[in-house]
Structures are given as structure tokens and as C-alpha cells.
Design the sequence.
């Protein structure tokens, strides 16, 4: 019974770390999307939003697949959710600039 509890505690600890954006319980938080990539991502977001047809996979179009393939499973999840948040922020920026 102790082994099952230890396993469960370890899995819960790993999940909490993933939610906080850490790679391990003692690991440092690594920035997956740099500031220099923001401008390139913004240009891609503008291109996506200016297309005539509705884009069904905007996040997939923004992903750097070489970077994504090098990550472990937890890193892939962090990268995906960081990209989703970045897309939302850049889309809001685009809408504000278009109104002005």
C-alpha cells in the first residue's frame, strides 16, 4: 500500500509542477517563447487573422515544430499552453491596433 501512495504523491507533485510551469519539483521555470520571437509570432498572427478563410488551426501554424519535437511531454504541454496564451495576447493587440 505504501508504494501506491508514494507513486500517487509523486504524480501529484509532478502535476503541480507542470501547472506552475516548472520542469521538476526543484527545477527552474524556463521561458519557452522569447521576446525576440514575439515580433515574428505577431507577424504570423496578423497573417492568420487577415486571411479570407477561417483558420481552424492557428496554434499549429504558430508552432516551431523543431523546438516542439525536442521537448519532453511536460515541456510540450507547457509550450502549447504558452503559445495559446501568447496567441490570445497577440490577437488582442491586433484587434486594438486595428481599431485605432
Sequence:
Amino acid at each position: 500500500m505504501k508504494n501506491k501512495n508514494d507513486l500517487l504523491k509523486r504524480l501529484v507533485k509532478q502535476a503541480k509542477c507542470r501547472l506552475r510551469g516548472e520542469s521538476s519539483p526543484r527545477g527552474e521555470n524556463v521561458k519557452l517563447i522569447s521576446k525576440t520571437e514575439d515580433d515574428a509570432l505577431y507577424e504570423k498572427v496578423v497573417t492568420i487573422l487577415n486571411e479570407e478563410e477561417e483558420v481552424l488551426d492557428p496554434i499549429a501554424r504558430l508552432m516551431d515544430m523543431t523546438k516542439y519535437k525536442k521537448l519532453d511531454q511536460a515541456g510540450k504541454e507547457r509550450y502549447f499552453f504558452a503559445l495559446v496564451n501568447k496567441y490570445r495576447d497577440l490577437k488582442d493587440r491586433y484587434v486594438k491596433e486595428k481599431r485605432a
Remarks:
- The CA atoms of residues 33 and 89 lie 13 Å apart.
- The two ends are 63 Å apart (CA to CA).
- Residues 73-99 form the longest helix (27 residues).
- Residues 1-30 form one domain.
